[in-house]
Design goal:
2 copies of one chain form a homodimer. The first copy, chain A, has 220 residues and is of the alpha/beta class. Chain A is built from 8 helices and 11 strands. Chain A starts with a strand and ends with a helix. Chains A and B meet through helix 1, helix 2 and helix 8 of A and helix 1, helix 2 and helix 8 of B.
Chain lengths: 220, 220
């Protein structure tokens, strides 16, 4: 049974993992017969009121505890997970991927990546194990791999500004419709736009389900 | 395009809506061609740390704001939604259905139901519009309909204690496996055990997807 790591970044599109993307990923992996290893960094995060879209001044939550909501409590601190524990890795999107797992949402191409997240992504790719990232999460991958794997191919959909930022971090951006994915066969990296482009949950699901299928096919 | 109301109760299995059940419901309804009207009560809720399973003493969140995480911000206060606005209603489970929408988790058959939730359930059933409830949410339906519709048929799976509580509120409990649902054709009520029995997200999804399909087939 293949063990697929899933990195969460909180619980909610504006300050954590995009919930639909995370659940669709977990369901698709379970239906594909994979064993899922859900993880998140043990760190503080800012809070956005999802009813108003406004920041909640002074409010702080813990990324691991909030991610545990999506995982129904079955989650590990990413610091305790090694690439050798996994056969592949999947990173759903949501602003948490760009605010918590790294600070791309604030600093763009000059962002820093959480050290444990950077370590696991780097080790998975170095071990030639498949990695999938959807929505804004490819920005994180571009930052981690930019120096080691220049020209690795990714998509975040069609947004030119974000695509330019990815290119400036060392990636080659490929435009991709919401219901498809981009595969970098050399580096075994799969990416799909999901809610960077999706107008409905079904649209997000189609690209994510195809990405999971492609990930499973890349397993040794 | 059928308008299907979805009542959420927060965001997380231990103090709100069960996130997998809610997202699977939204995806299945979207794929069935329905327009979804997501709603929740504007009220305070207690907080459970989903990493430890322990209550967070003194912590309070707002059910409508937390539910907005699952809805990506597109959510209404249930007080503003009338049965005439909808063609059917769907209630996912999670402890929020038994702690926030009503207090069945604390008081069992002597529970009280949030007045706006009770109003909408009662009006939907009175209008002969279909109602689906999964996991623990049927307890809520049993309490609301117990007096008006004695003997209405529901399932929460196989748990004898909970089944007995439903019966004492006026429902007739039907034992049901996780991948199936129970239909009360007279009252147009559909129920499925979901995470009352599910050992995996795929198991929960099968019963919920069948329930959504059955709900759509009951529409006029």
């Amino acid at each position: 049974m293949a063990k697929i790591g899933v990195i969460l970044s909180g619980c909610g599109v504006y300050d954590g993992s995009e919930i639909h993307e995370a659940v669709i990923t977990l369901l698709a992996l379970d239906r594909a017969g994979a064993e899922v290893v859900i993880m998140a960094p043990d760190m503080e995060q800012a809070v956005v009121n999802h009813l108003t879209g406004e920041p909640v001044e002074g409010a702080v939550r813990n990324v691991l505890e909030e991610s545990a909501r999506i995982a129904r409590g079955k989650i590990s601190d990413i610091a305790k997970i090694q690439a050798g524990d996994l056969d592949a890795l999947f990173i759903p999107g949501g602003f948490g991927a760009a605010k918590n797992l790294c600070d791309f949402a604030f600093k763009g191409p000059d962002c820093s990546v959480h050290p444990e997240v950077a370590r696991l992504i780097r080790d998975i790719v170095a071990a030639h194990k498949p990695l999938a990232a959807v929505c804004i999460a490819p920005a994180l991958v571009a930052k981690v791999l930019g120096e080691d794997k220049p020209g690795h191919e990714l998509t975040i959909g069609t947004d030119e500004g974000t695509a330019g930022a990815l290119a400036s971090m060392g990636a080659t951006h490929i435009t991709c419709p919401v219901n498809e994915f981009v595969i970098d066969k050399q580096n075994k990296i799969i990416t799909s736009p999901a809610y960077m482009l999706a107008g409905s949950i079904s649209e997000a699901a189609e690209g994510i389900e195809k990405s999971v299928q492609a990930l499973m096919e890349l397993l040794d």
